[in-house]
Structure formats: structure tokens, C-alpha cells
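Budget justification, computational time. The allocation requested in the original proposal was used primarily to generate C-alpha cells for proteins on the priority list. As evidence of use, we reproduce two of the resulting records. The first is shown immediately below.
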Amino acid sequence: MEIAIVGTGEFILGFRLAGVRKTYAAETDERLVEHINQVLQDRDVGILVLKGSDMERIPLRLRTTLENSVKPTVIAIGGEEGGLSMRERIKRSVGVDLWKQ
């Protein structure tokens, strides 16, 4: 499984330097949606990383798809993360609440 990063050139730069190969620069809303759809079709991608503010820029239907996606698991860095806490995202992707006693 691979990690894919979609966002502005500044956002993806650090991931590219860290060795993530699937990075997609999207400066406009149209390119953002195009690259997200491309990543959703890629069976090798297990994790999709987006900037939290970019989640708000995409259409509601696609945002809902991303929030409910298990593969790839979508992680929004910074911002509200689509209203879900990291705990809820992990629970949704793994199927178990890892913090539950």
C-alpha cells in the first residue's frame, strides 16, 4: 500500500522530500477534484492525505465519499478534519476503537 498526497505545491513538498512518490499538486479546485478522483481509482493507494482546508474546497458529494472511505483511508491534516476526530477516523478505518478500555 502506498500513500498519496494531494494539495498545493507547498503542502506536498515536504512529503515529496520524505520519499512519498505519489504526490499531486493541485492549485485550483478543479485540479484538486481531478487528482482526488484519480487517487480514489488507484488500487495501490491505502492512505490519502489532504490539507484540512482543502476538504472544504471540494464538492459536498465528494467530501462525503472521502469521509466514508475505508480504502483509501483519508487523513486531513490541520483544520476540522471534516468534523471527525482522529479517534473516529481510526475507528472507521480499522473497525475497532483502539482507545476503548
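The second record produced under the same allocation is shown here.
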Amino acid sequence: MSVQVPTSDSTLAAVLKSLDDDKAEDVVQIDLRGKSEMGDHMVIASGRSSRQVSSMAEKLTDRLKQTYGILSKVEGKTTGDWVLIDTGDVVVHLFRPEVREFYQLEKMWLDPDEAAKTT
């Protein structure tokens, strides 16, 4: 099995496909290029329960490892309230809806006009 060398855009596409396959809700992607050095893209999504959030995180990290050889750093998977996945180029935040509403990460990173569309 050959592993493809990912670009930030191909990693983003793989993240979005994985989340779509796992029925993630309210998926928001934010372009971080020129805004932050932590990565090129941020993805924020919700799952309906802690179990779904943890499962989405596990499947996403497995798919990225199998397809691209990316070993992601993961925090929060055991509780499933807020899981942070750092792939290097793409930072993924998976939330239960109540936790996402409390922290409102989109509003910190999106332009004000874009943030208003997400509420």
C-alpha cells in the first residue's frame, strides 16, 4: 500500500469527506491562511452525542493515517464533549451541540459577516 503525500487542501477534503460519511452536523470550515500559524484550515462540526463525537474522531484519525500516513494529535476523545484533532495543516474541533454553543469558536475565527450566518 502506497501512502499519498498530502497537501493542506487534500487533507481538508479528506477531513470533510470523513465527517460527511459519519453524519457530522453543522460543519464549518475556516481558512486560517494569513490569520494563524497553527494551520491552514480549521473545521468545526457537531455530533449528536458524546459517543458519536468520539466515534467520528476515531474514524477520522484512522482514515488520515491509512490514506496519508498522518499521525494526528487528539485530545478529549475519551469524554467526547469536545475533541480536538491536530493534523498539522488542518485543526478539527468536534463538539456536542451544547458544548459548541457554549464556546462559540466560529465567532472567534470567522469574519463578523460570516459568523452571523452560522447563528
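A brief technical remark on that second record: The CA atoms of residues 15 and 60 lie 7 Å apart.
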